[in-house]
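Quick one, T. Sequence first:
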Amino acid sequence: MGIEEKLPSGFLLTTVEQAAGWVRKSSLFPATFGLACCAIEMMTTGAGRYDLARFGMEVFRGSPRQADLMIVAGRVSQKMAPVVRQVYDQMANPKWVISMGVCASSGGMFNNYAIVQGVDHIIPVDIYLPGCPPRPEMLMDAILKLHDQIRHEKLGVNKRRAQQEAEEQALQAVPTIEMKGLLR
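Structure tokens:
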């Protein structure tokens, strides 16, 4: 004898956070931002064989003002870093970032002064996607994980409370150097 039996059919029960999360995850618009060889794999993911249209992402936006997902595909040079930041700042809130490929995530094999050693030095990253270059299936998996993250994201006061709790837990965590375990 649950609540489903008390209500007439045709009713849907949910919270505002769950409804907003479902709407946000179902309408992501990625920005066109390919910097190197990973961009070819990103373009392949948008083609007919892999069909991102299933997830409501069939159109890669040319303007950052129309996008809410930035997929940084490839290595970011020091010269390109201010442009990456400017495009990120021009995107509408809420916005998310996927770092695609080992070069975008950590500089890859290019450990020199000309390449940024991880795009997270410039903008906040939500999902890191490894590989050189990562396959289209891997990008789709990262997008699905981002969908799950967006769907469970809190709103308003609950979001601020969750951020404060996460920060307090991080401050109370035992430093790595003091941890005891199998490797020490």
